[in-house]
Write a structure and sequence with these properties.
Two copies of one chain form a homodimer.
Chain A lengths: L4 H8 L3 H9 L7 E2 L5 E2 L2 H15 L4 H9 L5 H34 L6 H9 L3 H12 L2 H38 L7 H17 L5 H13 L1 H8 L5 H18 L1
Antiparallel strand pairs in A: 1-2
Helix pairs in contact in A: 3-4, 3-5, 8-9, 9-12, 10-11, 10-12
Chain A binds a DNA duplex (30 and 30 nucleotides) through helix 2.
Chain lengths: 254, 254
DNA sequence: CTTGACCCTCACGCAACGTAAGGGTCTACC
DNA sequence: GGTAGACCCTTACGTTGCGTGAGGGTCAAG
């Protein structure tokens, strides 16, 4: 069992040489080698690779990535959360860049000549400050950063059980409503859906109604989610989806 | 007149070394040198630098950038348009990545174990195809690409006058409506605003109502636009803004 | 006429791989 | 059981886009 370099390469889109490189510098060494010296990557290795590629995509150097992943207190969820946050920042930056270009296109169309200063003011509003800030935030004083990171991670270790429990409790309550025959598009069911949304927003990310709808749809279309939710009570996934949709409609109608 | 390396560096956020490098490889050589051998950058040099940085941001290599900018048929507008398009693609890709991460966070929260394949399927939906496609589209067969580019560029050279004229005609008509006392939030004024939006969409980019609102706001807050528009008729900028807002309200109310 | 703040040209260094070169390994099919 | 073809290994030099000095001119201010 396990994957060869070529298989990993095909699976992930990186080249074999890259995997060799990561092995060379100790960033990702396969858990095993065959008798002939072939690299064998385990599932755990691939999870690590996914995190590596995520951080790489975000512009971290391989050395930085190694340090980030060396933190024993940070688990998969912590990394996902951090990457999610950084991606949102990027999205914001990209949006501003697009606006800047649209501005310049408008100016060009009207025949307005922008001076050099104006050009780079428009175009640079996101670059120097945002980028510098980002760099400092992510990796400013290496010591201070790691200390705070450790704290956040230990928080989430504690919170972890609490999150799981809260989630389960909520599912339990929704299942009870369903069992009691409460319609999915009734007030109390919608309130439960709203609680569900709030819970996600509190622990993970700002969950808009749009995103919430997407999640609800996923709960019934992706069998892994469906099965998992239906473990609490059969049919719960569908019921929850309907409540989510009704709740989103209610909120967005205003 | 002209800017020294240090000034350009401060203005644009790149380092002096980078400017030296661009000079070395012939990507951006300052138009002039002082008697002492100091580099002097002109406004035209800075415009070129802006385009260079735009393409660099988008991931093009310096060599590719040199080739792109070498096309004599492509003017500033063509580059802006291309960069705008590529940025929109990037935005889409980023959005998908964020969705993928949200999916995995949800899965993690529910305790669903994703296999390696699933993980990279989710995470790789945008990477291999999209990126390869992008790379081919942008620089696939160098010859074919340049040929098509030239056509697009020559189109836009021809179209250019037409665009200008159409724009001016439309402004003229709006000015006439204003002079005739047609209220900015009346049907005919809104229709003119809608025409304005359609014109932008046709020549430049998909101009949503949201973006159109932003443009309208800019017309009255940025004095350069205000003055330019008011050249057709005093007060036109404000009138157009009001019509745009009314039109957007009408369209989005549905 | 000197002191900073700039500017110049070499020139070496570095990250993150790409790209052979030269050579074993493994399944498959004859 | 031999050999073709796909796959794997290590070694090592090449490339891109600059960073980072070293050593030395230039220029406005006091």
């Amino acid at each position: 069992m396990g994957y060869s370099v070529g298989e990993v390469a095909r699976l992930t889109g990186v080249t074999v040489r890259t995997l060799h490189h990561y092995d060379e510098i100790g960033l990702l060494s396969p858990g095993e080698r065959t008798a002939a010296g072939y690299r064998r990557y385990s599932e755990a290795d691939l999870e690590r690779l996914q995190q590596i590629l995520g951080y790489r995509e975000l512009g971290f150097s391989l050395e930085e990535i190694a340090e980030i992943l060396a933190d024993p207190a940070a688990d998969h969820m912590v990394h996902l959360r951090r990457q999610h946050g950084l991606l949102l920042e990027r999205l914001e930056r990209l949006r501003k860049m697009i606006e800047a270009i649209e501005f310049m296109m408008e100016a060009e169309q009207m025949g307005i000549k922008l001076t050099a200063q104006e050009r780079f003011e428009v175009f640079g509003d996101f670059d120097p400050d945002q980028y510098a800030e980002e760099a400092e935030q992510r990796w400013g004083d290496s010591e201070a950063y790691r200390e705070s990171q450790r704290r956040v991670a230990s928080y989430s270790k504690q919170d972890w059980l609490q999150i799981k429990e809260e989630t389960n409790r909520l599912y339990q309550r929704i299942a009870e409503a369903m069992a009691a025959g409460v319609p999915a598009d009734s007030e109390p069911a919608m309130d439960l859906a709203e609680e569900h949304r709030a819970q996600i927003s509190r622990w993970f990310y700002e969950c808009t109604y749009e995103i919430h709808r997407g999640l609800g749809e996923m709960y019934v279309t992706d069998h892994r989610f469906t099965e998992n939710i239906d473990k609490t009570a059969p049919g719960l996934a569908r019921y929850l989806r309907d409540a989510i949709v009704a709740n989103a409609d209610r909120a967005q109608a205003r």
